[in-house]
Amino acid sequence: MKSFYEKDIIPAFHEFCDLVISQFSKLGVDSAIKSKNFKLLLNDNEIQFKRDIESSHGRYFFRRMRKNYIPCAENAGVYFFFDKEGKGLYVGKSDVSGGIGKRVDSHNLEFPDAEYVIVIPFSVAPFLAGAFERFLLSQFKFPHNSSRPL
Q1: CA angle at 19 for the pair 129 and 58, rounded to the nearest 5°
Q2: How many domains does the chain have?
């Protein structure tokens, strides 16, 4: 399996969406993706007010932003821990609202080589967070997920 890098997020997400649509089609559900306009909002803003946590998927740098809010912290979704070169170290999910921030915080000290985290919220369909995480684990190598079975 190949390593995962920040640049792989969008292509992997598009491939995941194609597979979901294909599965629905095999079940006789007529569906299609109208366009693939998914973009990460990686503006790296420091989120100082809770009301602004939806403004970015952002890169949350642990040391520099420790007193700030984690982007999309109150949503269900998938989160990635990266090292300073942008290599994915761990992928996780929270499939309940109010969970990403808590999950990211719980792993923060667990991965000393992690430099930052990126979050992709699944607020409309939280059940897809687990499916996306499993898809990523089946396609890519994340060093800190190696001991965790699929």
Answers
A1: 40
A2: 1
